[in-house]
Design goal:
Blueprint: E1 2-5, E2 12-18, E3 21-28, H1 35-43, E4 51-57, H2 74-87, E5 93-98, H3 100-111, E6 116-122, H4 135-140, H5 144-158, H6 161-167, H7 172-184, H8 190-196, E7 200-206, H9 215-220, E8 224-228, H10 235-238, H11 240-248
Parallel strand pairs: 3-4, 3-5, 5-6, 6-7, 7-8
Antiparallel strand pairs: 1-2, 2-4
Helix pairs in contact: 2-3, 5-7
């Protein structure tokens, strides 16, 4: 396990990694998740072997610190992720981001273009104010203290055992602030940033999730959109073969 300070007060973002060649692949999890849990089984596949791989847990999640003073906005998460990449001596990394992690990866590519050479995004949040069915919407619907003091436990019961297994390890206050920050979005908004980035961009949409809103505009901007059959939001679990092929650049 490795770590880097991210807030000027001694709080650390942490990650595990496997050795290998450059450019490194940096895996970034979604809201209430952990990177290694969602991506380690992908990074070790033969078609992805031999590349340095980092599994970073964002502030408030997994093995990273969860300072109460931190805002947990997309920009702050991106800056914390930048601290991890800087400490690792990385430039031009390939970022593999899921859901909120994809939004953070987009913001990082905008704020620190030296750190990112390629994006592979899995159902990343591209717009502010996602629909009520989004996980972040259910969390952000509550006031922060009310969520921490009671609703957090109910959310863990409602999301199902897979998501709850990692969400219960996230700090409730950090989880709520992250959800609020995700609903607020970035400035410029993530979709606009993604359309303008001058790097390779791949967007994976689970076929079971339905058509990707604004797909044609994204493709016109050079984003390669891949509809993954038999997969929902967690493409890396539902169709690992297609997911690994996309990360490897083979689809």
């Amino acid at each position: 396990m490795k770590q880097a300070e991210f807030d000027g007060r001694g709080s650390c973002i942490r990650w595990t990694e496997t050795p290998g060649g450059e450019p490194a692949r940096v895996y970034v999890h979604g809201l209430g998740s952990m990177s290694a849990v969602y991506h380690a089984h992908i990074a070790t596949r033969p078609e992805l072997a031999g590349r340095r791989s980092l599994f970073v847990d964002l502030p408030g999640h997994g093995i990273s610190d969860r300072p109460e003073h931190f805002g947990y906005t997309l920009q702050e998460h991106a800056d914390a992720l930048a601290a991890a990449l800087d400490a690792s001596g990385l430039t031009g990394a390939e970022l593999v981001g899921h859901s909120m992690g994809g939004a953070v990866a987009i913001v990082l590519a905008h704020r620190r273009p030296d750190l990112v050479s390629r994006l592979v995004l899995t159902e990343a949040n591209l717009d502010a104010s996602p629909p009520p069915t989004a996980g972040s919407s259910g969390i952000a619907a509550h006031e922060e203290d009310a969520f921490v003091d009671g609703h957090h436990a109910r959310v863990l019961e409602e999301v199902g055992p897979l998501w709850a297994a990692t969400m219960r390890l996230a700090d409730p206050r950090a989880l709520h602030r992250s959800a609020v920050g995700l609903r607020r979005g970035s400035e410029p908004v993530m979709r606009s940033i993604l359309e303008q980035l001058p790097i390779e961009r791949v967007y994976l949409q689970g076929g079971l999730s339905g058509e990707l809103a604004g797909r044609h505009a994204l493709e016109a901007a050079g984003v390669r959109v891949v509809m993954v059959p038999g997969a929902g939001h967690n493409v890396m679990f539902d169709n690992p073969d297609a997911f690994a092929a996309a990360v490897a650049g083979r689809c």
